[in-house]
Amino acid sequence: MELNDRKIQILQAIIMNYLETAEPVGSRTISRRLPLGLSSATIRNEMSDLEEMGLIVQPHTSAGRIPSTKGYRLYVDHLMGLSGKPMERFDQLRGLLQNKYVQLDSLMKEMGDILAELTKYTAIVDMPQFRKTRIKRLQLVPLDQYSMILVVVTDGNIVRNNVIRTRHPLQVEDTYRMTDILNEHLAGRTFDAITPEEAAAMKREMQADSTMMEGVWDAISNMLRYADNIDVFTSGATNILNFPEFSDIARARALMEVFHEKDKMLSLVDYDLKEDESMKITIGSENTIEQLKDCSVVTATYKYGGQNIGSISVVGPMRMDYDRVIGTLDYLVKDFQNMFADNEEKEQKKPTE
Amino acid sequence: MELNDRKIQILQAIIMNYLETAEPVGSRTISRRLPLGLSSATIRNEMSDLEEMGLIVQPHTSAGRIPSTKGYRLYVDHLMGLSGKPMERFDQLRGLLQNKYVQLDSLMKEMGDILAELTKYTAIVDMPQFRKTRIKRLQLVPLDQYSMILVVVTDGNIVRNNVIRTRHPLQVEDTYRMTDILNEHLAGRTFDAITPEEAAAMKREMQADSTMMEGVWDAISNMLRYADNIDVFTSGATNILNFPEFSDIARARALMEVFHEKDKMLSLVDYDLKEDESMKITIGSENTIEQLKDCSVVTATYKYGGQNIGSISVVGPMRMDYDRVIGTLDYLVKDFQNMFADNEEKEQKKPTE
DNA sequence: TGTTAGCACTCGATGCGATAGAGTGCTAAC
DNA sequence: GTTAGCACTCTATCGCATCGAGTGCTAACA
């Protein structure tokens, strides 16, 4: 059967109506709504065809139609008018991204919160892969005789820190000297770019400089290797409670639970995308996670240095306002990427050593 | 009417039964359960008295009884057997508290998560008042020509950092020198202990040392004044969905919403306690927050240097397992306080300047 | 050939009455 | 003081009739 223009118009009308009301759409509604001057009977015939084509389904015999996964897919891929309207309320985020506060965890959390608030859906933020960003500066901060904190600042002024313990008593001057050596070797590079041979060489060189460096390098390389917290944040999980499709408490709970299962969320936001697409939409049964079979997920990835280093997702009901979600995500990701880019520029005027 | 021993036994039986089942308790149930050899009719008489005393209520005429706020209060204050049984699963937290990872936000968040998981209720963690803890060390980390990060480590190896911008171009050596000056003046003191006069004097002294210090001191004092993030974290908010009393979606949503209103949560965990009590229990209608009228809140405060600096709370249904919650909270708070105490000891062996 | 009016049919939602059952309060007997 | 017995109350549940939205089909129409 051919999907002619009229069928498309009707499908679109059904979907848009359903997006608003969350109620099955009947032929009369469409007949009145569409300015085609067609009676409900004609619409019924067309709807019957659309159902046969698998684009819409009937919850039960005497109900209206709702879009199927396939129907949404068609809508998202071809029918949806991408409104590039500028988003308000982003100023708040802008402020954050302008380096005012740069604790990675807090930043990502805040991003998720804002996204959840803007979209009214649930946001899932995947931590950027620290190891793929460039080290701007390292600094050892002495704490007491046997411990210090290693502060690492990477591009985007992302700060992370770990406690390091040593076997030999520390002097404050030692930490300064070690800091200088560390920066000399590592500043301006990404963690990933450091080969094992190089690391070994660095270690030897450092130990030659001071016996005390011994434990330090191990701790550092340890941190670099393991401390890349692959992690996800979920924000606005409870937003889904506002949608009638999840007013069943059991279903709501199942969703809540899955939102807090980190491995499932990680598999969800997996940003293993083709190079050219930066936005992935998974609709209903296309989801691999059982509990999300009635949900849609829009995932946007962000890049750094040409590589995907993380992603941001929105999870909502299948009748999600795809248009707005995509617009918001797009804006958000671009801003976030700019944060890294801006700092790369500034990098030119380094503090003079 | 006198609350004799038998009445107390019956009340206790009613409460304990209701804690388990969340169903109104009938006279027959008590008659069978209590080894007093009393018939249900006798129990009914006693229950009638207990109701007259306001300790139990009937949801409707032909239903069993459930404890009233007053009844729970009596139970919590006098009847409950405080089982000091040691808690398992705390090892995880122990690890965290042993300085392995010391980002304040993450630590507090993790504490909330563990508490929520252990109790199966919702945990609310109030950030410790940074300003009342003692500064162990400050460190300026240069970023680029016009910005650097001020890292502050306080007792308990709590790390916080803020970006500082300057008008004058920076040299790396400057940041080292400034760091030394900062530590000389501020290390070992609490933010609160610094008087305005003292601060002004410090500023003058610093500016004499270097013109570049100008903007720096302002930024620092700014950070100390405003950056004490009075904040709360809510963990396991969705746990309450598991309780039948909140299976009504509207009520569940109202609760969820209130959990995310930071000011309300702050008012909730207000740790304005009498000096001698470290645990406050608010039951049902005793709550000032409307949405929590059916909930109970157990709040434990933690001290540092003799002052309350924060609190940890558990929110659950009125038929909460008070006993277990109190035990868990008590354990958690003690451990957390030890973290500060331990580090105070270590403080003796400072790194040699 | 496409469109439409008309109509029988389906099925969920709603409302109502009857019923069952849990639990009470009261009374009278022990 | 305790208890058996009983009438009473109230909720929860089930069946049943009804309503109405919406469909599919057929026949007539342009």
Write a brief caption for the model:
With 353 residues, chain A is of the alpha+beta class.
List the helices and strands and how they pair.
The structure is a homodimer of 353-residue chains.
Chain A (H helix, E strand, L loop, with lengths): L4 H17 L5 H7 L6 H13 L3 E2 L8 E2 L1 H11 L11 H10 L3 H16 L2 E5 L8 E10 L2 E8 L3 E8 L6 H15 L9 H14 L3 H14 L5 E4 L13 H11 L2 H7 L10 E5 L11 E10 L2 E11 L4 H25 L7
Antiparallel strand pairs in A: 1-2, 3-7, 3-10, 4-5, 5-6, 8-9, 9-10
Helix pairs in contact in A: 1-4, 2-3, 5-6, 6-12, 8-9
The first copy, chain A, binds a DNA duplex (30 and 30 nucleotides) through helix 3.
How would you describe what is shown here?
The structure is a homodimer of 353-residue chains. Chain A is an alpha+beta fold and 353 residues long. Chain A has 12 helices and 10 strands. In chain A, strands 7-3-10-9-8 form a 5-stranded antiparallel sheet, with helices on both faces. A 3-stranded antiparallel sheet of chain A has the order 4-5-6. In chain A, strands 1-2 form a two-stranded antiparallel sheet. In chain A, helix 2 (27-33) packs across helix 3 (40-52), helix 5 runs antiparallel to helix 6 (104-119) and helix 8 runs antiparallel to helix 9. Chain A is elongated and about 90 Å long. The termini of chain A are far apart. Mean pLDDT of chain A is 82; it is low at 346-353. Chain A binds a DNA duplex (30 and 30 nucleotides) through residues 24, 26-28, 38-42, 44-45, 47-48, 58-64.
